[in-house]
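From the pipeline queue, job 12 of 40. The input is one protein chain; the requested action is below.

Action: predict structure.
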Amino acid sequence: MRCKEYLNYIKGHPCFNCSINTGCDAHHISFFDKGMGMKVSDLQTIPLCRVCHSSAQSDKEFLPDERILRRAMMVYMENYIMKGGILQND
């Protein structure tokens, strides 16, 4: 699923890792290998500052355990919906 509005919502949050409040990217989380050229859903994202984003992309052990990441993604999605956000494919 691709949803630019949701990605902008994620980017507006502090970094999930270091809590810095500016310049965050939406980091896509893949819990299993996807085929070449296949990107995971925009719903599987967390906000990371540029430094943490770079570290997460180069080191798979950088981010916490999968259960913590899945719960965090659910909380972001639930809050987005509760604030009136609509999840629709772009």
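Job complete. Helices lie at 4-11, 50-58, 66-82.
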